[in-house]
């Protein structure tokens, strides 16, 4: 059944032809897509020839419906050439094992399965850019960003399924809700296309991505993709490579499946940088904290990560003086820090947060002891970090420039793969040796590391 979805053409807005085939569920999908198209300022076209692009919402239920859908796609391709396919047939495999629609009509621009408004809109934006009306649009196409233009945070989920005893985030934000993978990848693409050179993946628990939806299969670029950390990282890494950009992972817990991500770092697909909030090393303290992955053998895991990817940089945060922490438990933490050689570590003296269950635990550590332990921890952490930084002297590193007054003629500041913005150190760039050489914010430069300064490296652009 074909629905008439045409509306009046206008002279300026891009026009989309739309054919809706199939059952009422498909019709609802069509309505959602059409509503979104109209909300964004697109018009629909009555004819294939008069459109800038055609969307065919297909049905794959019975053979006749499949034939009707494939014929309609063929017609749209012949009359217009730019065709996006969505709906049930888009999810079907062909005889060759690939996507059926792509096998029959390799020229279609994108194929999605059903219920994929965002993926369809992403494909539309890619091929017929969204009309921008500065009087109506309150936000730029990439949304409002508070970061500089060259890096951006990509939030993949909200909330958290854990109940760490010192934390009240779950009571404020609820359980984990993962964003659909198509939405996440669509946002990533828009950010890369807008010039972002470093994408920072964030959430409350990045390694749990997709747990809440049982790793449901979503759609991206016409292909099924599971809502899972590995698939997400693979797709982000591939997209970043196309744009010469970096992907950095934050808030990753040391679950066994994280081991699958480290080889992607060794291959250079994403930055060999892991932000893992360990919080402590003694198993009893971790249990009292109710930390996720508290039963994991973290030292062995870190050693294995370093075997797979020797250049991996690990950042972490810790808490000293948690209720009931004994001197021996604290010493375990210091030993862990020395052995694990955490590249970048921060430490807080435990401070009770109103509403946290840890407040009711026995054995509160006196304020002065908490502070003294924090200082002892930081002394060890800084010794590890300084030794690691010194090992970099003489190396050449890729640096993303964050600041470069006077085109970098007086030097500038940047970061290597080992430095996340705001929380880690920087690479202080010396003025380039050649007068003609400039530095630009948001561009990469190679730098020879010539020294260290506190938490920072000093680099000579080459
Ligand atoms: S600290 Fe624990 S409970 Fe709080 S957000 Fe992180 S994992 Fe979830």
TrEMBL record:
Its EC number is 2.8.4.4. Keywords: 4Fe-4S, Cytoplasm, Iron, Iron-sulfur, Metal-binding, Ribonucleoprotein, Ribosomal protein, S-adenosyl-L-methionine, Transferase. Residues 390-462 form the TRAM domain. GO terms for molecular function: 4 iron, 4 sulfur cluster binding; aspartic acid methylthiotransferase activity; metal ion binding; protein methylthiotransferase activity. [4Fe-4S] cluster 1 binds at residues 23, 59, 88. It holds the Pfam family UPF0004. Its main location: cytoplasm. InterPro entries: Elp3/MiaA/NifB-like_rSAM (IPR006638), Methylthiotransferase (IPR005839), Methylthiotransferase_CS (IPR020612), Methylthiotransferase_N (IPR013848), Methylthiotransferase_N_sf (IPR038135), NA-bd_OB-fold (IPR012340), Ribosomal_uS12_MeSTrfase_RimO (IPR005840), rSAM (IPR007197). [4Fe-4S] cluster 2 binds at residues 160, 164, 167. Residues 14-129 form the MTTase N-terminal domain. Residues 146-387 form the Radical SAM core domain. It is an enzyme of class 2 (transferase). It catalyses: L-aspartate(89)-[ribosomal protein uS12]-hydrogen + (sulfur carrier)-SH + AH2 + 2 S-adenosyl-L-methionine = 3-methylsulfanyl-L-aspartate(89)-[ribosomal protein uS12]-hydrogen + (sulfur carrier)-H + 5'-deoxyadenosine + L-methionine + A + S-adenosyl-L-homocysteine + 2 H(+). It comes from the Bacteria. Binds 2 [4Fe-4S] clusters. One cluster is coordinated with 3 cysteines and an exchangeable S-adenosyl-L-methionine. GO terms for cellular component: cytosol; ribosome. GO terms for biological process: tRNA modification. PROSITE patterns: MTTASE_N, MTTASE_RADICAL, RADICAL_SAM, TRAM. Its cofactor is [4Fe-4S] cluster. Catalyzes the methylthiolation of an aspartic acid residue of ribosomal protein uS12. HAMAP family: MTTase_RimO. Belongs to the methylthiotransferase family. RimO subfamily. This is Ribosomal protein uS12 methylthiotransferase RimO. It comes from Caldimonas caldifontis.
